[in-house]
């Protein structure tokens, strides 16, 4: 299918979506988060394909998966065998991979076939689109770039919205695993003040469509407290960049897992 054909089929502009994916166990558990993932499908038009920016492809460089059949990557350890048996056999799309690489700058991006769909992508999509029939392509996050560059790359991807593609970011607005594990071990899953403050400040900036402020947040003292490493925050910048100031902003999922992991989902459009 050509870009023109797909644009004609999708007269409505696609929204953009960020989801807090949390624990890999959400892929197989029946809980408030997995139920929230399922309900997301009813909030967006059916896309022709999905471009996913996952916190778990955090590397040196900007790459796009070009696999015809991207493998399901189990990029975690110490979980039940049932989780390692999960497969999400969505097809890839060379057309979308080439288009995404073109938009973000063909000279600074490359197609890759040595990655696939990591759990940041499939742990959500197996609930939202369990049929695994939609083509899914992943875009990596270049660990060397500052926040404003990630925001700019998201802006570059905005034309995909008019081509039937859902730009989908997966991470968490707060993500300090050491703190979360400590709370789980102790049985104290109360939400600390720093997590509530950072989550609330980010939500307010999202409602204002203040991309520049969002790009700066992760480098603040509070941002570094919420994100000892920025990988789980950066997918949000791609989604915010691809959004339009005219888009309505909503939060279809809110709350904290393990006390300090924000599970907030953000829908633009």
What does the model show?
The chain has a 6-stranded mixed β-sheet, with helices on both faces. It has a two-stranded parallel sheet with strand order 3-7. Helices cover 37% and strands 17% of the residues. Helix 6 (147-156) packs across helix 9 and helix 6 crosses helix 11 (234-242). Residues 1-9 have low confidence and may be disordered. The chain has 269 residues and is of the alpha/beta class. It has one domain: LigB-like (Protocatechuate 4,5-dioxygenase, Chain B).
Number of domains: 1
Shape: globular
Query: Could you name the CATH class?
Result: Alpha Beta
Largest sheet features: 6 strands, mixed
In CATH, the architecture is 3-Layer(aba) Sandwich
SSE-based structural type: alpha/beta
Our Rg estimate from Cα atoms comes to 17 Å
Low-confidence stretches: 1-9
Instruction: Count every helix, treating DSSP H or I runs of 4 or more residues as helices.
Output: 11
Question: What is the arithmetic mean of pLDDT?
Answer: 94
The SSE order reads HEHEEEHHEHEEHEHHHHHEEEE
Oligomer category: single chain
| Beginning-to-end CA distance, first to last residue | 25 Å
